[in-house]
């Protein structure tokens, strides 16, 4: 392991790649600092710029955005009381009150320090558990991989905030989108009379359209309904370094626990920073001697939130690299970067591309150091960036998205695909249909089809999926996931019904 890591460090340590990591971290922090922009949006905007790069440079740039984006959400959360990303929601609970009583620099400094430690702990989790999982999954055959993908899709759909049926339908729609064009046996399907659809839809315009376009339109709609949401803030920030060191020294257990929670949840398909955020905050409150102080502006809550959402970074890479199953939406895009560079994530990646795996390790560590330096040195400017009006931001981002989609193949059709799926994503968003299962369906669809057909070519009997222990286990977990989600939905509806009379009284 040491040999390939040193080779990777030599490649990542070149001035050009270090500059790319710096640019990625800066852009990620900026994206995370702007309310509503999100980490995913920042990654989607940068994605097209990796086409002309070699794999190590492209992945290093994306890792930089990934690390910076998860830490950037703290800026607007502390300064405005508005989470820059969904994974920073609980940061607002204690960060904003601390800033309101005149300590914004302390709140930002604690958050940055917790993000740094959380990222480093998650890298350790990735280094130790990624190869172990890859080694175990080497025994997976097409039946097991097919069942695993089905389980991942049902798990994501089951986490769709009470909308199980909508989540499952969204995942099915994502799979359906991948059936456009020729199949693996060169049979033409669903071209709708357009020759350009023979090759199917490109992943990048579809993902940008479904998520970024709909998100931007949603932001404009919210701004129209609530013009007062674009409020100002005092951006005069000073960082009290000694006080922050004392705060962190008294929160060792909270930092470690929250980082491990973030790493573990990040490794589960379809969860990500938002889930880790709430779980670690809840656990910090339960383990605290003074739970009543949470929400009043204490370091405990900020550390729990920021350490966990940053630790998601390393954890999410574990299933992505070892199994080819994205841990969350940003990881689905990261997987798209690897695929476009001709690299297939999965068990063989650790054997066939060890230097690239090592480059990811090195980029995460270097990105964490760069993130701390950038946040502490430039925090005043990032606070100002968080005030950019959506009326200015939306057209600029849409223009960059369109340029990136066109640059993919120098094909204007891809731009129309972007806007077409953007309208679809916006309509689904209006209908409260979760978009994450849809995008993961698009990312995993081709692999699911390939593995399913390969399994049936080796053995035409569908019963083989049930007679092989691991594939049967994954299918059973998929069914259990759906049943558990139905149970949760019914329980929530029953509680809401029981509470209805008291609210109306």
Account of the 3D structure:
Helices cover 75% and strands 1% of the residues. The chain has 21 helices and two strands. It has helices spanning 2-12, 15-33, 38-46, 55-80, 89-100, 104-137, 142-158, 164-177, 203-225, 241-249, 252-266, 273-287, 299-323, 329-340, 349-352, 354-385, 390-409, 412-430, 436-458, 464-467, 469-504; strands spanning 181-182, 188-189. A two-stranded antiparallel sheet has the order 1-2. The protein is globular, with a radius of gyration of 22 Å.
A few lines on this structure:
With 505 residues, this protein is mostly helical. Helices cover 75% and strands 1% of the residues.
Keywords:
transmembrane helix, globular, 75% helix, 2 strands, 505 residues, single chain, disordered C terminus, two-stranded antiparallel sheet, 21 helices, mainly alpha
Count of folded domains: 1
Radius of gyration: 22 Å
Strand content: under 5%
- Following the backbone from N to C, one meets helices and strands in this order, namely HHHHHHHHEEHHHHHHHHHHHHH
End-to-end Cα distance, whole Å, is 66 Å
Total E-strand runs:
2
Mean pLDDT over all positions: 79
Side by side, the strands of the main sheet go: 1-2
Largest sheet: 2 strands, antiparallel
Structural class: mainly alpha
